[in-house]
Amino acid sequence: MHQNLLDQLRCPYCTGHFTLTINLKSHKDRVLYGSVECNCFEFPIIDGVLLLSLTQGYGGSEGKLIPYESFMAAAIVFIHTGDLDGLRAWIEKNSPILAQLIYREDLSFVDFNVAYTRQFHTHNARYLDEQKRQYGVVGETLEEGAMPADEQGESVYPKTFEDMLYRKMASGGNFYAKRYFDSSVSVTRNILLQNKPDDYLLSLCFGQGVFESVAREHVAADKMISLDAQLINIFITKRFIHPDGMYICHDLYFPLPFRDGFLSAVFASTCLPELVNQAQVVREIARVTSPEGWGLIEHIWTGKMMRYVPGRYYRYMQNFFASFDNYLTLLNNTCDPGRTHLTAYGFGDYRLDAVDGFTPLSEMEHIDDGTTGMISILMSAKPREIGEKAVPLTDVEAGRLRLSPMYELEREGDALRGAFKQDLRDFMQMTSPDTFEMDLTRLDERTYLTELYQAGVLLLLPEPLVDHFPPLNQWADLPESA
Ligand SMILES: C[S@@+](CC[C@H](N)C(=O)[O-])C[C@H]1O[C@@H](n2cnc3c(N)ncnc32)[C@H](O)[C@@H]1O
């Protein structure tokens, strides 16, 4: 956490400034272990992460893996006594998973994630089982839902990284890891590169850092703030994806810790409907963004039918909107009239007019045409690029590109053919083609590689994942299929 940023934050609870009162360990102008104080509380900084949340609003079984509130209390006590060894012993005893992320040196993203996902699903299954036995209407018994074993008695929790990607969520997949294999990441990259922020960029609810993996190559580390309520996601992203970024643990049920217009851009993907207070979150994104900046809320879904889901491991009641049109109402009631231009991709442009509310600029009257599963909303004062035009992969090392493991492959002469493994469609935000044919003699052409990347056939994976998948030229060397 850079001191420059600490000086600019506002306490979300009392609006006061923060003063760095304890600086136990720092590196250059980054505070690694310390404490900041405002008018109402003191908040610890642990391994560079500012713990700003006073409650665990996210809830559910994940609290067992990292008992957040006790962790924060322990952090305050040990920071006060200057006892970093004591803090380490506390973490090792009470949250081995967090201890690994902070202290263990030889840890790989792939191995950690497989072990963590197994543990996570085991916890969820037990948690839901307890809930069901206790309350009847919520939770699922082990037999009903969480499926700890298949018919042969084999555990269905993932043993390999591929298991994590390929298994359906209910039987132990990992949503966050799977996001790295989603073709929509190329669109996100286009948007970021076509609308590069001039100053601070905030990434909200970032999961395992899909956005951070893209943004870290284009935004300075001391201008990149990532905020999420779930400690495990924060420490995974920090450890494996963007170690130099600035991280805040904060619950979006409370205001954001920034003054009005402080940020150049705010990005939030695949999370808005999950937040109970959707209107407040949109209002906060608009408030903290500068008038020249932008806020992108990507991958919004609706789902009236899913209001009560007894088998959720963290939120049984989902106040998902019934229709995408409801988002126009929400935006109309939350955004600052006169400076909001709204683009809901794929469904035309809307402009917020102080008198009439949102005015569609296209012929379409409604966002909701009944065929889409997702919309994304870009809020800005003027129309902006929404990632439809591909940004060529000119500055990217071709050696970092990998073929999507979502395809069954077959080689014939210079052609490599792929067929999408249909049962993996779950949790893909954007659809990759069912089949593709790649010309293996054209792998040195950047425009060709860019096209395949845009389609989701090729992936630009973060460093800790790249080596797990074979390099592109390996396919050129493979023998033809019989
Ligand atoms: C479905 S995930 C999306 C992750 C990521 N943006 C992506 O696209 O893969 C939702 C994220 O929102 C975070 N989240 C949920 N409720 C939150 C809250 N009340 N405050 C802050 N973060 C929250 C979760 O911890 C999780 O990282």
Automatic annotation (TrEMBL):
GO terms for molecular function: S-adenosylmethionine-dependent methyltransferase activity. This is Methyltransferase domain-containing protein. Residues 223-295 form the Methyltransferase type domain. Gene3D superfamilies: Vaccinia Virus protein VP39. One of its GO terms (biological process) is methylation. Keywords: Methyltransferase, Transferase. The keyword Methyltransferase applies. Pfam families: Methyltransf_11 (PF08241).
